[in-house]
Design brief:
This protein is 48% helix and 10% strand. The chain is α/β, with parallel strands linked by helices. It has one domain: Uracil-DNA glycosylase-like domain (Uracil-DNA Glycosylase, subunit E, 3-Layer(aba) Sandwich). The radius of gyration is 20 Å and the shape is globular. The structure holds iron/sulfur cluster.
Length: 244
């Protein structure tokens, strides 16, 4: 999918979210918050639900927690408009209460479609509710800073999931803030590893397609010389990578 198609598909989803009445949160929200960011990005950040400022502006992570998220991104040389930022629930729960399971379930198809459209390499979960969609049954105190391969049922076809605390928790607890800076510093390396895995998968898929299209030709060229993998370009240091 080219960038313009991705952008258009994301805008269709956002339009549906803004008019959605699938769960009770539609009755109390001011504005739904579909999410925003670069449609060509490789990294998606997923929080829990909009807060008071987000509900007012219709944009994700614009309050104090959003300020810390921007600082965390800046710690690794990234800017918020280079990634995509959204939540598992697109409307504010009254009084900033936790989202209910039926509200999360009602909203899930929007997130699945966003992930299917963006096809990110890395999904960063912010907080335990977001983590629970991708790493069910684990505790965030143990899982933060770790990765799993995304279940394709989440919408992310071939992504690495990286768990972090929610920035709001980091604002409340200095120890969590310190750990959040340590965790975010690992994301560039996770992205590089995932890029390499996806590139290897793509090469394998191309070889399989070529074999199916012309088995005789593929067999004829499968000499030791052609079977030797080409030398990979020297890896760039992570801190010199152009990440997007
Ligand atoms: S939270 Fe999700 S499912 Fe519920 S009304 Fe908002 S957009 Fe619809």
């Amino acid at each position: 999918m080219i960038d313009a198609e991705r952008r258009a598909a994301l805008e269709v989803i956002a339009g549906e979210v803004r008019g959605c009445t699938r769960c009770r949160l539609a009755e109390t929200r001011t504005r739904a918050v579909p999410g925003e960011g670069d449609p060509a990005t490789e990294v998606v950040f997923i929080g829990e639900a909009p807060g008071m400022n987000e509900d007012r502006e219709g944009r994700p992570f614009v309050g104090r927690a959003g300020g810390l998220l921007v600082d965390l991104l800046g710690h690794i040389g990234w800017q918020r408009d280079e990634v995509f930022i959204t939540n598992i629930v697109k409307c504010r729960p009254p009084g900033n209460r936790d989202p209910e399971p039926d509200e999360i379930a009602a909203c899930a198809p929007y997130l699945e479609r966003q992930l299917a459209t963006l096809d990110p390499s890395v999904v960063v979960t912010l907080g335990r509710y977001s983590m629970g969609r991708f790493m069910p049954g684990v505790r965030i105190s143990q899982a933060h800073g770790t990765t799993v391969h995304a279940d394709s049922a989440t919408g992310a076809a071939d992504a690495t999931v990286f768990a972090m605390y929610h920035p709001a928790a980091a604002l409340r607890t200095p120890a969590i803030e310190r750990e959040s800076y340590e965790d975010v510093a690992r994301i560039p390396a996770v992205l590089v590893d995932t890029r390499e895995r996806r590139a290897a998968n793509a090469r394998t898929a191309r070889r399989l397609t070529a074999t199916e299209a012309d088995p005789a030709a593929t067999a004829a060229t499968a000499t030791p010389a052609t079977a030797t993998p080409a030398a990979e370009p020297a890896a760039q240091p992570v801190d010199q990578l152009s990440l997007f």
